[in-house]
Amino acid sequence: MNVRFPRQNARHPLRVALAAALSALALAPLSEAAAQAAPPPQEKGPAAADAMLHALEVQYPTPYRVMEAAEVKAVLDRVFAYLDRVTPAEVVDPRGAPVTDFARADPDAVLKPGDFRLTSYEWGVTYTGMLAAGAATGDRRYLDYVNKRHDLLARLTKAYYPAVRADADRARAPIKSFLNPHALDDAGALCHSFLKAKVAGATVDYTQMIGICGDFVTKREYRLLDGTLARGGPDGKGGHKMRPLPDTLWLDDMFMGVPTMAYLGKTTGQRTYYDDAVNQVLQFSKRMFNPKLGIYMHGYVEGMRDHPELHWARANGWAVMSMVEVLEVLPKAHPGYNAVLDQLRAHIKGLAAYQTREGFWHQLIDRNETYQETSATAIYTYAIARAVNRGYVEPQMYGPMANLAWNAVAGKVTAEGQIEGICVGTGMAFDPAFYAYRPTSVKAAHGYGPALLAGAEIIEMNRKYKFGLNDSGLMYQGVR
């Protein structure tokens, strides 16, 4: 027997009204109260003793909430005040008297001593952090900090470069490491800061400085046969530099050179610079990225069968930051754009698996017995938040992670504006002890620029997207 049900009238008024109501409910944004509320209990009678245990207050070691923009700026302002005080933009003679006239290039003049060096690669990152903080907060002091120091470096370059170029071995200058670079550390990050400032409209004349550092990064730094930036090249005496071995790749150099290449493409319009930047990202990644773990090894020695696969946190930071900087200016029509984007996504996904419950990442990412390190955590905060802001990764997945990481970094900023938990300068090694026992110091310059970058990008992310507690968990709650 075939049973036939009576046909429903799809246009019945009650059915139409019900469908419209359900559609409106599905499309309407949840109010904050509704988004945070758990479903009401359906049972009748007194509540069981365990009914509200899920709502007990939790004692999180790192604040588990979104920091308001004013709170973030207060942290950045403490860092700024400290850095402005301890990095004077002055030149002095041997007696300590100020030198302001550079018409005669006094070979005995030096930059006035402070806690940090104005021409180190770490300070190249700090200048970019100041630019970002100024843009995010609207506070001109951050931009003025950069302009004042960049202008001083430009004037010193004009005064001292002729003598250094004429006799690099014997000439003396307050910024000789920049005027006569021997490694990417001497030129790359500074050049990146000059180029970013120029793109942002800074009034400093960067022509001569970009010529010096851009030429070194793109033409003079040693490379492997396929063009990959490397250390341990010829020493000029028939041998090789031991850095630490011939033909060694340091993951750090993805940042020390590659963003400069991309920004030279932006400022000159020459595609060859973009091509070089893309090739560097892909060639470093082919050798050094572990796709199973989603993270990079720190060092690689060309020609060896096995390599020291130690996943140092800050080096992974330089890599992920390099990719977001390249994508910032790489044209989407470039044939390598999607490959770089895919690599960035793979790296961020890999890093996500290793964030600790306090919001940090370990000094050796996949070794929980090593300490939680601040500079790498700040770099990841910046890169992940930037990736969220640019639509490279989903805010639902990565926004809460970035907010937790920022809160962890902010907790390391002292009342005086110093930052704790920063690993000091670190070379490359073949054993875990080297990395695990590297000291930390508030005078390690590597963490200040990343902290500024992180705070600035968190302000931008939380200005664009809303995050809040939903049934006790920190969750994405939509576009503002």
TrEMBL record:
It comes from the Bacteria. InterPro entries: 6-hairpin_glycosidase_sf, 6hp_glycosidase-like_sf, Glyco_hydro_88, PolySaccharide_Degr_Enz. One of its GO terms (molecular function) is hydrolase activity. One of its GO terms (biological process) is carbohydrate metabolic process. Pfam families: Glyco_hydro_88. The keyword Signal applies. Keywords: Hydrolase, Signal. The keyword Signal applies. Residues 1-37 form the signal peptide. This is Glycoside hydrolase family 88 protein.
